């Protein structure tokens, strides 16, 4: 196939930006609006009244990362290491939050828990998600099992997808073309292609949204080897969302989605079983349908989020396997505001999870829960709740959380002291109990206790800084040796995070974070002890934005699966550059993304390829 060279297109795009710049409009300084967070309590609370560590990724931030992936965006946040996001496009993704593992992170999409019961860690595969379909993301760090149930031990990633426009008909089109190259092969050929189209609108009381996206990436081998063959990724996403407002008090939203990707992979072929460049492949498909009726009454609301998910996976290799799984999840809850100080939520969460191994295996969860929020007029805030996990295999386990905070007004801003004590419960998943590799039906549930304490100062005029210490004790941690088993000793992970956001001058902002993570009396693979991110964003003029991003990842330990010995991976630093310009306000935007500007050569995962300097050029058209 004839290769597409992107440098000429890049030069043309930059030239158009240069000629299209407009004089920056004058504006007066205004106080920033209060940031509102939801996921830590399910109520809209001002940030100053929330006692949890919540990261909010807004629609604006997502738009300023167009052309990138969901994992690229999440990986810049404090306390989070998304391992595999810097490697080939089809690389397995591991979400390490505060030294935890995939099984301790819960993903919500539009309020519904989603996971794959057939996967080893029961997690949702983030590779299936298209960033262009997402409106906003909230990440609650720390134990959140009281509100969200099993597996919410280190973080909850709450994804809200885009809603329909209020216009009768509206549309958008996004296309991105870029390179996909290693540090030692900078050919600058077009090898990465992303497209997304959406049609949506509102007809009287009826809303609709339909979107389709596809992504194709070629050019790299998963295994770092001489004369290796390419391992391409191909993904497509289809989404349909319909809604109807029956009255001012009652509305229903229904949705359906189909997400599928195929990627070539490298494996461990016989007879040596050493990692090598092979012709293996991996296919994953997810179908989801759901409905969400909501009734609003005086001082409260009643809502049900219900969804069915069907997942099919196939691994084509010397050890090939086919996996099928489905899940039914229903979350019914009532929210009530007694007054401006007391808020309550009472709910019942039901989940039915099934997967096919040697035979059909399943379990259910039926969890009633209660959460209370108190916001005083003298600075004291309290978020407390409890949940009774009723597991069909492991009986009942009670989890609870206590999350006080105290806010002191300082000028137009505030200083906040906050703390948290929370427990969580993680049941062994179906793959660990009945799967094909190392299954152990005698596993016990993992139980965690997380303690946090922190301080935040916010002027509300362009300066915010906070720091938090965390300590998590894990009992019956599920580990893998020659099979899955419970650790005989408790594990403790502790550390601290620091975040700062500064509007230095008009139109120039800096955001930075640092995370220290340490596992006491042991180590965990691929998790850095030190990690830092910094971002400088500048509105060059009214229609032009540029950002410079820096990331430092400290040394880690990984396993060499050829020798089954552990090796240290060196620290590395990455610099990315992003540039966007609106040619027609709210209609047409061009953007350029340069990643790994200095072409850093490093290992993210031992023996696997990482990406060198890459360039992409995109166009976003709104109609």
UniProtKB/TrEMBL annotation:
Subcellular compartments: Cell outer membrane
Gene Ontology annotations for the cellular component aspect, listed alphabetically: cell outer membrane
Keyword Signal assigned: yes
One Pfam family named in its UniProt record: Plug
Keyword Membrane assigned: yes
Annotated signal sequence range: 1-20
TonB-dependent receptor plug domain span: 49-155
Keyword set, alphabetical order: Cell outer membrane, Membrane, Signal, TonB box, Transmembrane, Transmembrane beta strand, Transport
Protein family per UniProt: Belongs to the TonB-dependent receptor family.
GO terms under biological process: siderophore transmembrane transport
Name of protein: Vitamin B12 transporter
Domain TonB-dependent receptor-like beta-barrel as annotated: residue spans: 178-597
InterPro entries xrefs: Beta-barrel_TonB, Beta-barrel_TonB_sf, Plug_dom, Plug_dom_sf, TonB-dep_rcpt-like
Cited PANTHER family: TONB-DEPENDENT OUTER MEMBRANE RECEPTOR, TONB-DEPENDENT RECEPTOR HI_1217-RELATED
GO molecular function, one term: siderophore uptake transmembrane transporter activity
Membrane topology, from the record: Multi-pass membrane protein
């Amino acid at each position: 196939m004839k290769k597409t060279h992107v440098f000429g297109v890049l030069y043309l795009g930059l030239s158009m930006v240069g000629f299209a710049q407009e004089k920056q409009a004058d504006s007066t300084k205004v106080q920033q609006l209060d940031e509102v967070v939801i996921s830590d309590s399910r109520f809209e609370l001002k940030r100053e009244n929330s006692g949890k560590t919540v990261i909010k990724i807004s629609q604006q931030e997502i738009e300023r990362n167009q052309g990138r992936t969901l994992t690229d965006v999440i990986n810049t946040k404090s306390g989070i290491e998304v391992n595999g996001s810097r490697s080939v496009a089809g690389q397995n993704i591991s979400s390490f939050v505060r030294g935890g593992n995939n099984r301790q992170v819960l993903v919500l999409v539009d309020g519904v828990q989603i996971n794959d019961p057939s996967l080893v860690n029961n997690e949702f595969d983030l590779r299936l998600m298209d960033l262009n379909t997402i409106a906003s993301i909230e990440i609650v760090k720390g134990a959140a099992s009281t509100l969200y149930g099993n597996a919410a031990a280190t973080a909850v990633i709450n994804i809200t997808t885009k809603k329909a426009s209020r216009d009768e008909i509206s549309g958008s089109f996004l296309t991105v073309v870029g390179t996909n190259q290693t540090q030692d092969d900078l050919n600058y050929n077009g090898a990465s292609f992303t497209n997304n189209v959406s049609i949506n609108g509102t007809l009287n009381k009826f809303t609709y949204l339909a979107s389709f996206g596809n992504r194709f990436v070629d050019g790299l081998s998963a295994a770092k080897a001489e004369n290796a063959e390419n391992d391409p990724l191909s993904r497509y996403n289809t989404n349909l969302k319909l809604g109807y407002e029956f009255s001012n008090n009652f509305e229903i939203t229904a949705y359906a989605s189909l997400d599928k990707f195929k990627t070539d992979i490298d494996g461990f072929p016989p007879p040596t079983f050493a990692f090598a460049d092979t012709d293996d492949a991996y296919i994953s498909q997810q179908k989801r349908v759901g409905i969400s009726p909501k009734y609003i009454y005086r001082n409260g609301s009643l809502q049900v989020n219900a969804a069915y998910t069907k997942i099919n996976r196939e691994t084509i290799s010397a050890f090939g396997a086919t996996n099928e799984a489905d899940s039914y999840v229903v979350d019914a809850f009532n929210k009530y505001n007694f007054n401006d100080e007391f808020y309550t939520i009472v709910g019942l969460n039901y989940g039915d999870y099934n997967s096919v191994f040697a035979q059909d295996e399943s379990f259910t969860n039926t969890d009633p829960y209660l959460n209370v929020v108190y916001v005083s007029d003298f600075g004291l805030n309290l978020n407390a709740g409890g949940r009774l996990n009723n597991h069909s295999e492991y009986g009942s386990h009670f989890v609870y959380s206590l999350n006080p905070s105290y806010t002191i007004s300082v000028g137009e801003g505030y200083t906040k002291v906050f703390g948290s004590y929370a427990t969580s419960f993680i049941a062994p998943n179906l793959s660990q109990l009945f799967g094909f590799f190392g299954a152990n039906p005698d596993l016990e549930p993992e139980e965690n206790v997380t303690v946090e304490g922190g301080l935040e100062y916010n002027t509300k005029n362009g300066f915010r800084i906070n720091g938090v210490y965390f300590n998590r004790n894990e009992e019956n941690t599920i580990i893998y040796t020659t099979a899955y088993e419970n650790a005989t000793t408790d594990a403790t992970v502790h550390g601290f995070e620091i975040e700062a956001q500064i509007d230095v001058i008009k139109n120039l902002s800096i955001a930075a974070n640092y995370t220290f993570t340490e596992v006491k009396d042991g180590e965990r693979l691929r998790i850095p002890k030190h990690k830092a991110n910094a971002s400088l964003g500048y509105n060059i003029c009214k229609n032009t934005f540029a950002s410079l991003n820096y990331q430092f990842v400290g040394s880690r330990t990984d396993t060499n699966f050829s020798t089954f010995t552990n090796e240290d991976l060196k620290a590395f630093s990455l610099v990315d550059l992003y540039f966007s310009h609106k040619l027609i306000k709210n209609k047409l935007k061009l953007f350029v993304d340069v990643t790994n500007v200095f072409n850093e050569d490093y290992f993210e995962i031992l023996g696997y390829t990482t990406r060198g300097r890459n360039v992409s050029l995109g166009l976003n058209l709104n109609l």
